[in-house]
Amino acid sequence: xxxxxxxxxxxxxxxxxxxxxxxxxxxxxxxxxxxxxxxxxxxxxxxxxxxxxxxxxxxxxxxxxxxxxxxxxxxxxxxxxxxxxxxxxxxxxxxxxxxxxxxxxxxxxxxxxxxxxxxxxxxxxxxxxxxxxxxxxxxxxxxxxxxxxxxxxxxxxxxxxxxxxxxxxxxxxxxxxxxxxxxxxxxxxxxxxxxxxxxxxxxxxxxxxxxxxxxxxxxxxxxxxxxxxxxxxxxxxxxxxxxxxxxxxxxxxxxxxxxxxxxxxxxxxxxxxxxxxxxxxxxxxxxxxxxxxxxxxxxxxxxxxxxxxxxxxxxxxxxxxxxxxxxxxxxxxxxxxxxxxxxxxxxxxxxxxxxxxxxx
Length: 360
Hints:
- The protein is α/β, with parallel strands linked by helices.
- The protein contains 13 helices and twelve strands.
- The strands form three sheets. The protein has a seven-stranded mixed beta sheet with strand order 2-1-3-4-5-11-10, sandwiched between helices.
- Strand 1 (36-41), helix 2 and strand 2 (69-74) form a beta-alpha-beta unit.
- Residues 1-31 have low confidence and may be disordered.
- It comes from Streptomyces flaveus.
């Protein structure tokens, strides 16, 4: 497989070298933009990837580069599949890759192969290892701090005691450690961490199993709050608590502002989520991809630099996340056009929405 990959890349490089300048915009008749951008997302377990990020990136690419096209693939939490998808896109001749790595370490060699083929890679949402050309994400430490601060506030208000269960993300994602570190910077010394789990694949099912184990070990009455790293994990946590017949749910955090999570917040089942304005992230990634495809520097797009374990001074955009609770859904998600009140407020939720002030 390695020999074949090297052969494919060698052929591709030779082909790129032989391409006429008109394909890169050197000829007025050919137009200024005619390259393809490959978008590789990590999974379908988290709704935002398919429902928000993909269409937003595609839309912004077209706005910035009317002649550009987009190739898309989803790895479905399989790093081997994502590697194959990358090679396929390189073979097809994409000019730039936007990569949200299913496994940031496992994709390192594929990123090296992309560079050898002259295809720059923009790391999206997760900081992949290898020679990436740009990085766009949110400040993961701030995500964790927002979750920790909200959990402390909710636990104080409910007086449920000081034991927290940490339901962390997938250990293959560096973001999971980033979120956890931010949360612990707030929680350490103020609560007891009763149990801490890693959630493979950010999976609701795995989160349910882990939370069931925590309930069995600690007892439902001793759990004062749950630091759930994202909304898919929060869904598993809440389903496990309900299955254990916990009538008064402890406060549970989340992240990604999934529609189901927003509805749980309205119902009072989930305390908060972290909203990461996806449009800003998608816009920055598209701008980076178009600049790189045109052979331009990223200084006009990047606002800072960041180091990965393998690469220094990566041009980066780190955006600011926002806390969402029942009291500010309208001022954040509805105002930004993420959801309408009609989308959030199903017939079943109409009384709760009225109580929360979510009126049409």
